[in-house]
Design goal:
The chain is 49% helix and 16% strand. With 347 residues, it is an alpha/beta fold. The longest helix is centred in the last third of the chain and has 18 residues, at 239-256.
Length: 347
Amino acid sequence: MPAVSICVPTYNGAAYLRECLDSALSQTFEDFELLIIDDASRDDTVAIAAEYSRADSRVRLCENPTNLGLVGNWNRCIDLARGEWLKFLFQDDRLDRHCLARMLMARVAGVLLVVCQRTVLFDPSAPAELRHIYSRYVAKHNLSQRFPGSAVISAQSFSERMVDYPLANCIGEPIATMIHRDAFRLYGTFHPYLIQLVDWEYQARVAVQTGLCYVDEPLATFRVHGASSTAVSMSAARSYRRDVIDELLILHEIVYAPAYRTVREAASRRRPRINFHGRLLNAVDRAQLLALEHHQVPEWREAARRYPKLRWASPPRRVKRWLTSSTLGPIVSVVRRFKRLRRGEVQ
């Protein structure tokens, strides 16, 4: 069993794949496997990966018979990795040659997540608006600002800060992390229904349990270009899922999931108390309203089907106003809603 599995999930990534794989194979720490899992690419990705697997015994190539999608392929990497630690490296990105060595040196017993700084590289094809949005976001949300001078951030400290910033990714993309395989056994894998915040949700899920170790050095380069997954998720066609449903589901997890108990406890200690359930109710109202305004009702219904508690999280606004003016409101509203459900008028 190697110390580290460098996991490279690929899909039509021929343009930058050689640069990516060369950065992995140039590591000064050499006890690793380089696991490439291709998700039914239609370009030269598999041919390039096969060339590397023939040339170096540490390179292992697997091909999915059908396309699993981005998150599905990430989770496939977890299933097939042999290493004690998993280091994600995406087909567009590259590692500093000392990345594995520095991150392994930062380990602390019992902490299952190690994070480093990353450099953001904007390809000429990246739209100007995307560059502006991404640069501003990274400058505002990062571990150096959130926890200045900290090499080890405890689970309690991370939970306290997550109360203030539940939706802001201060860790970065998976390329900035190294995760012990026990984390996946204890806390599950990547959330299958999230788009933009899938990496943040999983990293936070681990950090609120074990804390994290932080290497304040730029040991990885994250490339943003016009066809990258980041750029695609920023497109208008996916804005409802990205900006509305993603945030709604993270609030749902904070309110209900056992993994986020420490965040709920931290919120209850605040004076005044932070009410995440109230935030969820407001998010459900917003999601329903925007679904109607932007013709995204099928997306809302699919989210509510997958997470049934969202259906009952908040009654319609007109019912809430009526409840405040009638002592019989609670009983009557339940009866009316039940009748509407039976008639199929409420989804």
